Amino acid sequence: MRILVAESEPPAAREKRRDSVGRSSGETFLKRLGDLAPDASCDRVKPADRGSRVPDAVGLEGYDAVFLTGSPLHLYEDTPETRREVDFMRAVFQSGTPAFGSCAGLQVAVVAAGGTVRAMQERREAGFARRIARQPAGEGHLLLDGRPPVFDAPAIHTDEVDALPEGARLLASNSVTRVQAAEIRHGNGIFWGVQYHPEISLREVAAALRRQSEDLIEHGLARDEQDVERHAALVEELHRQPDRRDLAWRLGLNEQVTDATARMTELRNFLTHLVLPTRSARGRA
Fold it and tell me: Are 144 and 266 in contact (CB under 8 A)?
């Protein structure tokens, strides 16, 4: 199996993330895919970077799956970085290669297929998206196979999908963010995506909270940096000791977040239920 990870982070954000957790968003995906598909051959490209070499639609046909990472890019802004990201995703759709994206990865696919993205204004999902529930189109959808009817997931974002493109299916929502999971069919391709982050660990959640502490304070989710640090320290300790029921209780979390296997449900489902059948249909060994 050949997998391509498209890192949506621009260079400065990539290095900032590496400084906090030792990995860029693309490197996190590579680590998770190494666990889920150890025999796969994985490549990484950086579509947002100026001068970066990325495959065109024909080149993308040689892959069995494409993964798009999260990013601080704002897809409603017309910048060279966002244009490069959207152009890459349009080539993915043209190639017919199945694709998955989380957070900004979902937003890139939405814009590439004709939908829109907007800022969340005063609302925030910081740390975890709570009480995500299936919508009618999500009942029985294989992206959510194994998830309970309502669940939490790691999430940090300040932007959201405004309008899904024509023909897309809304799979899951919560009270903060309407589009938490979606399927998009566009051109020759199919995309499954989520606004939350099934790929990140609780240690990475804690680091993201610390990186965004100023924003959390500005929007009234924390009183000061010490407040953010106390909360992040609890999340990080739960990463180290996932069986600590007292910590899970204090954070209001259950095994859907604390158990790594459950946390990666959507990644596993994408590979099992979309990539492998598509690969067989293409006649690949």
Answer: yes
Q: Is residue 197 annotated as a catalytic residue, yes or no?
A: yes
103 labelled catalytic? yes
Domain ranges of the chain: 2-200+261-281, 202-256
Cross-strand partners of 43: 4
State phi, psi for 217 to the nearest 5 degrees. Answer: -70, -45
CATH of 2-200+261-281, one of 3.40.50.720, 3.30.750.24, 3.40.50.880, 3.10.28.10: 3.40.50.880
Q: Which stretches of the chain drop beneath a pLDDT of 70?
A: 284-285
- Give yes or no for a contact between 236 and 202, defined as CB atoms under 8 angstroms apart: yes
Q: Is 61 a catalytic residue?
A: no
At residue 54, what are phi and psi to the nearest 5 degrees?
Answer: -130, 150
**Structure confidence by residue, pLDDT tens digits, 94-153:** 999 999 999 999 999 999 999 999 999 889 999 999 999 999 999 999 999 999 999 999
Q: Which of 141, 157, 197, 231 is catalytic?
A: 197
Q: Which is catalytic among the residues 7, 85, 199, 236?
A: 199
> What's the pLDDT tens digit per position in 247-256?
999 999 999 9
Catalytically annotated residue among 103, 125, 141, 204:
103
